[in-house]
Amino acid sequence: MIEVIEQSESRIAVRFIGYPIQYVNALRRIAMVEVPIMAIDDVIIYENSSVMHDEVLAHRLGLIPLSTPLHRFVRQEECECKSPLGCPRCRVLLYLDVRADEKGRVVTSGDIVSEDESVRPISDNIPIVTLVKNQGVRFEAYARLGIGKMHAKWQPTTVSIVREVDSSKDDYILELESVGSLPARDILLEAINILEEKITTLGDSIGGLKAYADAKSSIG
Hints:
Layout: E1 2-7, E2 11-17, H1 21-33, E3 37-48, H2 54-62, E4 92-99, E5 105-108, E6 113-114, E7 127-131, E8 136-146, E9 157-166, E10 171-178, H3 184-219
Antiparallel strand pairs: 1-2, 2-10, 3-8, 4-6, 4-8, 5-7, 9-10
Helix pairs in contact: 1-3
């Protein structure tokens, strides 16, 4: 039995009764490191007169959670364009051009403009860098799909845990909390799809090995 015991846009808790811990834990791991989301991966800085080094600025941009319409894009390595620059099917261009006046200002995620409004910072209030009078920042950035195995900026969850209710009855609760790029429910559903695909692939491989072993034994 599977029972949803808590659900919101950012959080979901599901009780699995009669499922082995290995299955529930596999979903936990996949949700954390194999469900893809968008994140800034390449940054071209045209101007940065702030006190922050370019490398630190680029790193901070990569950690800003971006909304992700998951099935509108493909991973760059899977895209038909085969281009290191990417194309509209595998990347989104974002840019920022800000200069401080006499009072100075804080540059935030709300200053970032996206060529695709479906992929943008999940909040306008994430601070990036503070500018004083006449300082400016101008850059282009490219967001791509990635997974947490590649870098922490592509992890879709802040919480991904399994709690034991009664191990003798294979009774466990899986809790997921989203960073905001995807609804928590979608993360779980995508994790289930990925696990199902892995099981199917494994079954096909085992079937192929068995057929090969049977054929070899019949010849022998």
